[in-house]
Amino acid sequence: MKILLLEDDVSYKETIQEYLESLGYEVESFENGDEVIDALYFKKYHLLLLDIRVPGKSGYEIVKMMREKKDETPVIFITSLTDIDNLSIGYELGCNDYIRKPFAAQELKYRVEQVLKVFYLHSNEEEISLNNDYRYNLTKGKLFHKEETVALTPKEQKVLDYLITHLDEYISTKQLWEDVWEEKMVTEADIRMCIKKIRDKTDATFIVSKKGFGYKIDRKR
Question: Residue 185 region, left (φ>0) first, then alpha (ψ -120 to 50), else beta?
């Protein structure tokens, strides 16, 4: 899953980014709020970690702009002890959680996992059961069939993560091109081939397709 990090303390930013990447997340980091606005215009993220007081647009201003544009991407504010007095402001603007500096790595891990689980999977469980006896572990970001891990390439993992965050919902080839391939020069045939490779590693009906609608992964019923 892809996380955007805004933190103007370079040392702090690098520490957070390295830790999240060690957990398997893809992280893009910024030190200036104006750069975040530009990034959000061109890219999609699963989660934003925003320091509040930064050069350029503040964390508060970024979330206000997002929510006005109906962008509901979950947000966790990174805050100092003085900022915590304004906790209600963040929630009124539409943030999903706060984490107070200084924080332990484990606290960051749990808060990120919790927000992702509740927002995307509508569940507090660590794993979600999928069709055909597959299960997705959000903590590890891995797909399992019974006790075996399904080994995927980085691009296949991105497609899987995207479909997991839109469970039971058809996703068009155009959406995959825009959000997973980020509008890079690939053809529909390239995207279909990636789907085929995931099916080859799982089974033919793990990813459901419907002409004119796209692709989806279903929860276990």
Answer: beta
Looking up tokens 């927000």, which residue turns up? 115
Q: Which stretch of DSSP H or E encloses residue 155? A: helix 154-164
The pLDDT tens digits along the chain (221 residues) read: 789 999 999 999 999 999 999 888 889 999 999 999 999 988 889 899 999 999 999 999 999 999 999 999 999 999 886 666 677 888 888 899 999 888 898 899 989 988 988 888 776 667 888 988 899 987 677 899 988 999 999 899 989 988 988 888 999 999 999 888 877 888 999 999 999 999 999 999 999 999 999 999 998 87
pTM: 0.72
Question: What structural domains does the chain harbor?
Answer: 2-121 (3.40.50.2300), 127-216 (1.10.10.10)
Check: CB of residue 5 under 8 Å from CB of residue 28.
yes
Decide: 218 and 131 in contact? Cβ < 8 Å: yes
In sequence order, which residues have a C-beta less than 8 Å from that of residue 166 and are 6 or more positions away? 216
Q: Which residues contact 127 (CB under 8 A, 6 or more apart)?
A: 135, 136, 137, 138
What is the token pair recorded at 145? 């069939």
| Rounded Cα gap, residues 201 and 219, in angstroms | 18
